[in-house]
């Protein structure tokens, strides 16, 4: 089977890339070993926010949010984006202010609010005197399955082919093309995009590439709301009690909070040996320990006392693929000697909200040799934060 471009991975990044390439009239195939979306995109909390201290990521989140708002006009399918607004609570006043300043300079609505304003939005929320609250009104969440499927169906309508249940077994660089061997035959293409989530580093290790990617277990728990409570109807980013949450009907989803993900300093962030991709099983999915779930529940109760009797009802803990500076990799692999190979990986726990733009930027790289919609140097393989890791990994 011959295509101009083959995309490995039917997550939100791979399907978005295929959609944008199909719009550019490229002949494109997505190869997915499971179904769309079998990986992280099927397990994501799907929160969409622009709360980032890195101006490039704030911009990419803003442009992606704009796409989510008009998803059905662009694709013909509904991603069910729900705007709830987001409250970020921190005791690191400077860090929060820095993030709000960056967002404002990127034209994103966000402001510091006082306790009374916070309680107008979330009446039962406690705010201590040493804590500060930021409000991002345009944040919310979407349906991740509908998003990935929407991108894939829209790509198909434009002529792309989506091969589900098709596992890539090996990839081989030929003189001017790629040969992709799968469990159901061989694919030839001029350009190859790898957006295989946590499996990307292992797949590319066949080519002698050592990607600066680490794996982090990312716990998620669902709690039943106590009857008659209505707290936390917005996205909550509670860096004091170390959880984020979003409402899910009669349940509330809580997940792990890492300040480096959005507003913390990553310069001295040291990733341990056992988190290197080469030490981990990319398909690992664990369970959340009772102690961790209890810590989330205590955090939720500290912020919303009326939620103190919320009961855990389900949990899971897949890996996310992170980089040393918690920013994605969106680049071609010429620095590894493969100019017709393109990488979209290391999405560092924020790839869902960025997926509309990640796909567009990757498609532009393939089509024009550069990302035209915005500067992507913050996501290049040659950025400073990744250099040491590439030599050591
Ligand atoms: C628990 C959790 C919560 C999260 N919450 C958020 C959030 O609230 N907001 C946010 O923005 N981001 C969040 N993220 C991160 C976000 O989900 C990811 O960044 C995003 O889904 C990455 O998409 P992807 O397409 O790169 O990878 P994936 O969705 O993992 O897709 C990769 C695909 O490649 C396929 N594949 C792998 N190997 C092969 C092979 N050999 N052959 C064929 N196919 C292959 C896999 O089956 C998979 O479907 C969260 C992640 C997790 C795990």
Descriptive report:
InterPro entries: FAD-dep_OxRdtase, FAD/NAD-bd_sf, MTOX. It comes from Candidatus Sysuiplasma superficiale. Keywords: FAD, Flavoprotein, Oxidoreductase. The chain has 393 residues and is α+β, with helices and mostly antiparallel strands. It folds into two domains: 2-50 and 53-63 and 69-75 and 143-212 and 325-392, FAD/NAD(P)-binding domain; 86-137 and 215-322, 2-Layer Sandwich (D-Amino Acid Oxidase, Chain A, domain 2), CATH 3.30.9.10. The protein has helices at 12-23, 55-69, 71-75, 93-105, 115-121, 144-157, 200-205, 290-303, 351-368, 384-392; strands spanning 2-8, 28-31, 47-48, 82-83, 86-90, 111-113, 132-136, 140-141, 161-163, 168-173, 178-182, 185-194, 214-217, 220-224, 235-238, 243-248, 251-256, 285-286, 311-322, 329-333, 338-345. The strands form three sheets. Strands 5, 6, 7, 13, 14, 15, 16, 17, 18 and 19 form a ten-stranded mixed beta sheet that branches. Strands 1, 2, 9, 10, 11, 12, 20 and 21 form an eight-stranded mixed beta sheet that branches. A hairpin with a 2-residue loop joins β11 (178-182) and β12. The longest helix has 18 residues, at 351-368. The chain is globular and about 65 Å long. The model has no long low-confidence stretch (mean pLDDT 95). The structure holds flavin-adenine dinucleotide. The site of flavin-adenine dinucleotide (FAD) has 39 residues, from α1, β19 and α9.
């Amino acid at each position: 089977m011959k295509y101009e471009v083959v995309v490995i991975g039917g997550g939100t990044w791979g399907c978005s890339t295929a959609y944008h390439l199909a719009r550019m009239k490229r002949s494109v195939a997505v190869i997915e070993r499971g179904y769309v979306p079998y990986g992280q995109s099927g397990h994501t909390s799907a929160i969409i926010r622009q709360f980032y201290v890195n101006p490039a990521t704030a911009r990419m989140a803003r442009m992606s949010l704009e796409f989510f708002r008009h998803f059905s006009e662009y694709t013909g399918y509904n991603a069910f984006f729900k705007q709830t607004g987001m409250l970020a609570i921190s005791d690191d006043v400077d860090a929060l202010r820095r993030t709000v300043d960056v967002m404002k300079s990127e034209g994103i609505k966000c402001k510091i609010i006082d306790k009374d304003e916070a309680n107008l939005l979330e009446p039962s929320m406690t705010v201590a005197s040493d804590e500060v609250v930021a409000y991002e009104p345009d944040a919310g969440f979407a349906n991740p399955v509908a998003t990935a499927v929407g991108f894939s169906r829209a790509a198909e309508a434009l002529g792309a082919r989506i091969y589900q249940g098709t596992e890539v077994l090996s990839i081989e660089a030929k003189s001017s093309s790629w040969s992709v061997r799968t469990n159901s035959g061989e694919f030839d293409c001029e350009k190859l995009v790898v957006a295989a989530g946590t499996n990307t580093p292992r797949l590319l290790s066949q080519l002698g590439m050592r990607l600066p990617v680490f794996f982090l277990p990312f716990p998620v728990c669902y709690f039943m709301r106590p009857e008659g409570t209505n707290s936390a109807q917005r996205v909550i980013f509670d860096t004091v009690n170390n959880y984020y949450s979003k409402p899910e009907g009669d349940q509330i989803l809580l997940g792990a909070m890492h300040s480096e993900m959005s507003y913390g300093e990553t310069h001295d962030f040291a990733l341990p040996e056992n988190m290197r991709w080469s030490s981990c099983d990319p398909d690992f999915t664990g369970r959340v320990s009772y102690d961790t779930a209890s810590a989330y529940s205590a955090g939720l109760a500290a912020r919303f006392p009326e939620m103190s009797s919320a009961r855990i009802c389900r949990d899971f803990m897949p890996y996310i693929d992170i980089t040393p500076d918690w920013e994605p990799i969106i680049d071609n692999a010429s620095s590894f000697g493969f100019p017709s190979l393109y990488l979209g990986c290391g999405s560092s726990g924020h790839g869902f909200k960025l997926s509309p733009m990640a796909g567009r930027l990757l498609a532009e790289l393939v089509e024009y040799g550069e990302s035209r919609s915005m500067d992507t140097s913050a996501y290049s393989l040659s950025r400073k934060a990744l250099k040491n890791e590439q030599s050591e990994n």
